[in-house]
């Protein structure tokens, strides 16, 4: 499998050719076709020996190279002939291939620059938009002004996915160090008493990390069992609220 | 002379942690200092924010978690921000929410909030008001929460014949997370996608 | 004397907008100032962030919007917050395809394949799924093939302000040798085989 990965380091026949040109220190404008064809075929041969799936493009290129090679071998008199007819420059059978290689090389290098940019960008972190519902009036209902596309939606989603990775703060480390339920119970009681108000269930799960959420949930169950907190819901589907019970025994300072 | 700019680093990590915030323990771990030292840095930064009127943030502590928030006196500008939707685009928050609903419907608000990591009431209101989403039923179980899905208008607006025409999501996006608890969500996506 | 703490207010609203960012127009509207004045405030705040090492943030302009982000030098601390630092990078095939699209847009799949010399369906799918490219129209002529172009997310992903900020297309070859390992391997194999 490892071999497979390495051979696939070549994006295609042009990539492989560029690599050979580089390695053999060949002038791209004056490629020794016989030599490079031989090297190229050696790679293809080896890939086949390894029973790797050689993409058809590689075979097409092999045929192209062989065709160029045979054109290059055409008898010399033809060149004389063309000179007689006044052609300044005989068309080089390699020309088209060289142009393709040079064109491809530009983008291959640009891809490397993109890779650097990608890395630079990965060093900075942004934050999700804040929830501004407390500032909101009624929402707008006309879509004529909307002016967004599916791609804007997907783009927003990509941002979210990239960001998500940061929203599991230290989950590995935290997972190894157990959060004591007792401690979390203390924190919850402390919060409820300090603010002296009821809290929605949502507010009691400030850390969106599985372990912490599970511990918080268990802590709440335990507090309910011990009648330290009162849990209420006004209607069937309404928000659930938690209030501290008077005279609870859990020490808030712990 | 202080060689490490603790306050700057603390500001960075609190900023990136967003509404989730960080506990003193997490802060101490990331900064690789004792909790006592972390506490000191927190208080230093808190004081900076308070003293300097050119700063728009404050450092608050809620339920044992520290997080950055905007200063109360700037509320009027935030209100204006909400009322001035970005050149009449949907907000980033609304677009995210819409994407999650589009690909994972039917889905409850709580599930959406789990994915986004922030409260999502306002984006849901906006999307419902614009008829891009609607309540499509009720979830089973305790809360019988509303389930949201996309509407015909959603398809019309984005020029889709059906939901199956939604662009596929990337398969490789989460390769690195393999075996990690977090991405049940993504597995679900791939099932849908598959 | 300055009565209104513009910088603080700007910090507040940029903080709230998060990675959605704000355009100069939105900023001017919310602050109720001229765009020129808004620009000035932006630059002031930018300078504050840069000069003060005790600040962990910077004000960047990406994909046509201003947003707050953490300073690069704090990346090492932020990485500790994440379980799998780095995230999923684009493959070489995807990067090549994207480079061709970025410089040659609008462009059809066939044209891309001519340049790369290989089939490019999969990279195109990946890029579209990651919202880095989109269909921007149809080519004239027989097949009426889709034309591809880059998106706002593309600019954001690479931290570019606009397409005009793309690095110039390279013309000269560097002596990079990415396939060295493959070579060694092939040589070994040929020895064995021969």
Task: Report on the architecture of this protein.
The complex is a heterotrimer, with one copy of chain A (254 residues) and two copies of chain B (194 residues). Chain A has 254 residues and is mainly alpha-helical. Chain A is built from ten helices and three strands, in the order αααααααααβαββ. In chain A, helix 3 runs antiparallel to helix 4. The two termini of chain A are 55 Å apart. By secondary structure, chain B is an alpha+beta fold. Chain B folds into two domains: 65 residues, Winged helix-like DNA-binding domain superfamily/Winged helix DNA-binding domain (Arc Repressor Mutant, subunit A); 116 residues, Winged helix-like DNA-binding domain superfamily/Winged helix DNA-binding domain (Arc Repressor Mutant, subunit A). Chain B is built from nine helices and six strands. In chain B, the strands form two sheets. A three-stranded antiparallel sheet of chain B has the order 1-3-2. A three-stranded antiparallel sheet of chain B has the order 4-6-5. In chain B, strand 2 and strand 3 form a beta hairpin. In chain B, helix 1 packs across helix 3, helix 2 packs across helix 3 and helix 5 crosses helix 7. Chain B is elongated. Chains B and C meet through helix 1, helix 2 and helix 4 of B and helix 1, helix 2 and helix 7 of C.
| Alpha-beta classification of chain B | alpha+beta
Q: What form of chain B results from the Cα inertia axes?
A: elongated
Biggest β-sheet description of chain A: 3 strands, antiparallel
Radius of gyration of chain A: 35 Å
Per DSSP, what share of the residues of chain A sits in E-state strands of 2 or more residues?
A: under 5%
Corresponding CATH architecture of the largest domain in chain B? Orthogonal Bundle
- Radius of gyration of chain B, Cα only, in angstroms? 21 Å
Number of strands of chain B: 6
- Helix percentage of chain B: 40-55%
Tally the helices of chain B: 9
Structural class of chain A: mainly alpha
Major sheet attributes of chain B? 3 strands, antiparallel
Order of helices and strands of chain A: HHHHHHHHHEHEE
**Largest binding interface between chains:** A-C, 69 and 71 residues
């Amino acid at each position: 499998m490892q071999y497979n990965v390495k051979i696939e380091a070549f994006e295609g026949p042009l990539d492989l050719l560029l690599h050979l040109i580089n390695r053999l220190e060949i002038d791209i404008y004056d490629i020794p076709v016989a030599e490079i064809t031989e090297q190229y075929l050696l790679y293809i041969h080896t890939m086949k020996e390894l029973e790797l799936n050689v993409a058809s493009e590689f075979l097409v290129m092999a045929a192209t190279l062989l065709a160029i090679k045979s054109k290059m071998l055409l008898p010399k008199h033809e060149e004389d002939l063309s000179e007689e007819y006044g052609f300044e420059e005989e068309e080089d059978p390699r020309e088209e291939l060289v142009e393709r290689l040079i064109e491809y090389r530009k983008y291959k290098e640009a891809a490397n620059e993109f890779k650097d940019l990608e890395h630079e960008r990965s060093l900075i972190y942004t934050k999700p938009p804040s929830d501004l519902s407390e500032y909101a009036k009624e929402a707008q209902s006309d879509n004529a002004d909307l002016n967004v596309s599916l791609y804007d939606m997907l783009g927003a989603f990509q941002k979210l996915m990239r960001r998500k990775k940061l929203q599991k703060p230290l989950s590995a480390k935290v997972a190894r160090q157990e959060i004591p339920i007792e401690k979390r119970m203390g924190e919850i009681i402390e919060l409820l008493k300090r603010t002296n108000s009821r809290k929605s269930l949502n507010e009691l799960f400030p850390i969106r990390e599985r372990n912490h959420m599970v511990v918080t949930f268990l802590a709440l169950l335990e507090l309910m069992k011990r009648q330290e907190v009162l849990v209420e819901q006004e209607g069937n589907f309404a928000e659930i609220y938690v209030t501290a019970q008077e005279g609870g025994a859990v020490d808030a300072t712990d | 002379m202080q060689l490490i700019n603790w306050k700057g680093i603390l500001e960075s990590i609190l900023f990136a942690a967003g509404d989730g915030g960080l506990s003193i323990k997490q802060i101490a771990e990331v900064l690789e200092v004792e909790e006592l030292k972390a506490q000191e840095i927190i208080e230093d930064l808190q004081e900076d924010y308070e003293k300097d009127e050119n700063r728009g943030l404050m450092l608050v502590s809620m339920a044992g978690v520290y997080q950055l928030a905007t200063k109360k006196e700037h509320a009027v500008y935030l209100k204006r921000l909400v009322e001035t939707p970005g050149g009449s685009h949907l907000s980033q928050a609304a677009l995210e929410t819409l994407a999650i609903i589009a690909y994972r419907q039917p889905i409850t608000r709580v599930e959406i909030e789990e994915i986004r990591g922030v409260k999502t009431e306002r984006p849901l209101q906006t999307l419902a008001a614009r008829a891009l989403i609607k309540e499509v039923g009720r979830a089973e179980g305790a809360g019988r929460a509303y389930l949201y899905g996309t509407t015909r208008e959603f398809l019309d607006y984005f020029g889709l014949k059906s939901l199956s025409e939604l662009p596929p999501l990337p398969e490789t996006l989460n390769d690195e997370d393999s075996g990690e608890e977090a991405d049940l969500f993504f597995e679900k996506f791939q099932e849908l996608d598959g």
